[in-house]
Amino acid sequence: MAGRFCVSLTCGKNDTDKATVAFVVANAAVASDKETLVFLSIEGVRLAQQDYADEIKEEGFAPLQELMTNFVKGGGTIYVCSPCFKKRKLDETKLVPGATIVGGAKLVEFLSGGSPCVSY
Positive or negative CA dihedral for 85, 10, 78, 58? Predict the structure, then answer.
């Protein structure tokens, strides 16, 4: 579907460059009036925890927390892989605004209309 865009992100502090660029691209998609989804999986699910991204700042980019906040304020959606989240024993009560824990079926549903997806 031409009006949708997905960014799949598997990194957090283990690769802050990829995590940052993923949200830069996601913000560009939202700014282009695309219904945009960021799907966090593997280590990326840690970004769904409050305060986790606070100190991530890649040279030449806005701080990651600012990028994430702007993404949600712009209308973006953050899906968090449920099995990945549970495996890491993270706290569901401390999710960042805009984040929702979901199963893989929700990602498949979003992509099934032909949405492009980039992965980091």
Answer: positive
Token pair 């893989």 is at which residue? Answer: 104
Query: Which tokens hold the place of 105?
Result: 């079926």
pLDDT in tens, 13-56: 999 999 999 999 999 999 999 999 999 999 999 999 999 999 99
Q: Half-sphere exposure of residue 96, counting CA atoms within 13 Å on the CB side?
A: 28
pTM of the model: 0.96
Q: Which two tokens mark 16?
A: 């802050």
**Model confidence at 1: pLDDT above 80:** no
Helical pair 16-31 and 64-73, crossing angle rounded to 10 deg: 30
CATH of range 4-119; options 3.40.50.740, 3.50.50.60, 3.40.930.10, 3.40.1260.10: 3.40.1260.10
8 A C-beta contact, residue 42 and residue 49: no
